[in-house]
Amino acid sequence: MKVVIVGGGAGGISTASNIREINKKIEIMVLTRDDKVAYSPCAIPYVLSGTISSFDDIIMRTPEDYKNKDIDVIIGAEVTAVDSDNKTVTYDKDNEKIVIDYDKLVFATGGNPFRPPMDGLDLEGVFQIRNIADGVKVQEYAKNIESALVTGAGLIGIEIAFALKELGLKVTLTEMMPQVVPRSLDKDMSDIIVRYLEMEGIDVILGHPITKLIGENKVEKACFGNDDAVDAEMVILATGVRPELELAKMAGCDVGRWAIIVNDKMETSVEDIYAVGDCVESTDLILGSNTISHLGTTAVRQSKTLARTITGKKSKFNPVLNSMVSKVGKLEFGAVGFTSSFAQQNNIRPVVQKVEALTRARYYPNAKPMDIKVICDSEGVIIGCQIIAEERVAERIDTMTLAITEELTCFELSNMEFAYAPPVSMVTDPLVLAVEEVSKKFN
Fold first, then answer.
1. Quick check: helix, strand or coil at residue 98?
2. Contact (CB, 8 A) for 151 and 186
3. Which of 216, 227, 280, 324 has CA atoms 20 to 30 A from the CA of 67?
4. How far is CA 35 from the centre of its chain?
């Protein structure tokens, strides 16, 4: 059997590795247009900030490493055509057009950065960060400027803005929505992040989209709708990604509202063609409807399911909750499930409680404030949680992910056992405090 994988990101490379772990005989080929594989794009902002010393440090493996595992990774390969009837893939490599056949084909094509419609995008100094090569360009350009603007205040936008601030630049972060991280946080929680960023010297402008960039040959200013402008010798477009679907459509795969439709075995509508990662739609655990999950953790989990599917073993990919966590400077923030506003948009009447607690016993040195928001449905079932603190956010988000997956109510979670020691928690864990408080809102 010959498996061809298009895409060398988390989904594609993990699929190849997991297939090889299960089966030593299957022929595996990975085609990627990039010149690097097996690295995390999520680490790029931390290299820019200097927290991680080099881009080389975030590259886990090379094509040669995979060759030693009998996985053929072809870098610099641009796939241009797929013929699902004849089971062939065409790619360009070094100006040569090459046609190969396959028994099983995997699309792990990810997404392309979205370029918002505005004048000035072709000026020098305007960047999008998709891979290490983009990160290197930004790093070099930042050495000769004093001001930068990041537009798009999702996770990557915030992390890049902070990284550029750490390089000594005057940084402005803009977002067309009235809050940062709108998909994962409610506004009252996102306001905590905004206050932190402003305290760190980053200017945050919300609710005003950038309309144009101006400059002679290089970008000099970014303008808003009312012709207000801010200095920006460099502009980073962190405006999200759109799934790359051209090849999947060429192959005849069904595409939904956002991306490729797959079942819980990661099979597309076309026989012997599969898909994983940013280019597919997943099932939302709470609503049961399709959604997108542009997270590396999702892609890796999908790759494990797909590897078992291709090798003839039983497995299925479970619905998603899009649990996330991030860190900028000293501040950690995380979320899982629904925000209260998203619940309302989907005709769920949320019952919400926000509490302030501490990360350690109050008498223990360096206890940090922790803000927790819990969202339940009208029956008390937990459907969302948001946490912001300077430490120990990730493990509590993971706990709430499990609670939501198991459809626990706030009453049930408030009566469960949690570990305690003064250096790591209060005697009543902050999560318990939060669900106890929201429980009081029910009869």
1. strand
2. no
3. 280
4. 22
The reply to whether 115-237 shares the fold of 2-39+54-111+241-311 is yes
Q: Which amino acid is at 338?
A: F
Q: With respect to CATH, is domain 115-237 assigned 3.50.50.60? A: yes
pLDDT tens figures, 367-391? 999 999 999 999 999 999 999 999 9
Architecture of domain 324-440: 3-Layer(bba) Sandwich (3.50)
* Encoded amino acid at 326, one letter: S
CA distance 81 to 318: 31
Specify the DSSP class assigned to residue 263. -
pTM for this entry: 0.94
Bridge partners of 59? 39
Mapped onto helix, strand or coil, the DSSP state of residue 119 is strand
What are φ and ψ of residue 196, in 5° steps?
-65, -45
Determine the length of the chain: 443
229-231 and 78-83 beta bridge pairing: unpaired
State how far the alpha carbon of 322 is from the alpha carbons of 18, 181, 301, 334, in Å.
23, 13, 12, 10
- CA dist 92 and 243 (Å) reads 21
Q: Residue 176 CA to chain centroid, in angstroms? A: 19
Tokens 């709430």 sit on residue: 400
- Domain ranges in the chain? 2-39+54-111+241-311, 115-237, 324-440
If you search the block for the tokens 């991030």, which residue do you land on? 326
pLDDT tier at 225, thresholds 50, 70, 90: confident
Examine the residue annotation and report whether 42 is marked as an active-site residue of this protein. Answer: yes
Is residue 75 within 8 A of residue 37, CB to CB? The reply is yes
**What confidence score (pLDDT) does residue 228 get?**
86
241 forms beta bridges with 113
Q: What is the rounded CA–CA span in Å between residue 123 and residue 443?
A: 60
3-class SS at 349? Answer: coil
Block residue for tokens 């997956």: 405
What DSSP assignment string belongs to 350-417? -EEEEEEEESS-TTSTT--EEEEEEEE-TTSBEEEEEEEESS--HHHHHHHHHHHHTT-BHHHHHTS-
Domain with residues 2-39+54-111+241-311, CATH architecture: 3-Layer(bba) Sandwich (3.50)
Q: Where are the beta strands (DSSP E) in 178-252?
A: 203-206, 210-214, 221-224, 229-231, 235-237, 241-243
Please state the rounded mean pLDDT for residues 92-97. 94
Kind plus residue range of the DSSP H or E element containing 46: helix 44-48
Burial class of residue 78 in the structure, from the number of CB atoms within 10 Å of its CB (0-12 exposed, 13-18 middle, 19+ buried): exposed
